[in-house]
Write a structure and sequence with these properties.
Helix content is 61%, strand content 10%. It is mainly α. The two termini are 29 Å apart.
Length: 176
């Protein structure tokens, strides 16, 4: 469920909520209202994500599974609290970042499966004897190189215009 929490008044909040296709919205929310909502929703949901840019959003950003701050007018406290920072002002940029993260997670799972299967087979065959341990080690190193190359396709091969534009338009990185 997509819920917009905002300190704005009802009518502007409704318009923005409708424009963004939100399932629901809560207007005139105080910082503690936002934080309490995120805490309660987090207990009922598998994952919660909070997007905010100001001091009033920082407590809710901290309670969310993933806190995202965005825009050029974001505050330092929101940046410090958030897990991801998007420098674009367009709220629709969030959809691109989510799309990018899903593709990245798919690639991570793919790399994990390939690494486990190839390395396990190389260890087994090197131990049992069909190949020498040196050949098994070479296979393991080749698998590592293949995983790195597979990961590089995000930037270099997998829709260069799509990925490069997203990476150049948004700076998304985990906060320390």
């Amino acid at each position: 469920m997509n819920v917009m929490l905002t300190g704005d008044q009802y009518h502007p909040a409704k318009k923005i909520s409708d424009d963004l296709g939100m399932d629901a919205f809560i207007a005139e929310a105080l910082p503690e209202d936002k934080a309490n909502f995120v805490m309660r929703y987090r207990n009922k949901s598998e994952h919660t994500m909070m997007v905010g840019d100001g001091i009033n959003d920082a407590p809710a950003l901290a309670y969310a599974d993933v806190g995202i701050t965005m825009g050029t007018k974001r505050t330092d406290i929101a940046v410090e609290t958030a897990d991801v920072i998007i420098t674009a002002d367009d709220p629709l940029a969030l959809a691109e970042v989510i799309k990018m993260s899903k593709k990245t997670m798919k690639l991570i799972y793919q790399n994990m499966i390939v690494t486990i299967l190839v390395n396990s087979a190389a260890i087994l065959m090197g131990t049992v004897g069909p190949i020498s341990p040196v050949i098994g080690a070479a296979i393991r190193n080749a698998a590592t190189i293949a995983v790195v190359l597979n990961s590089g396709k995000i930037i270099f091969l997998g829709g260069e215009s799509e990925w490069k534009q997203v990476i150049e338009s948004y700076t998304a990185f985990p906060a320390d």
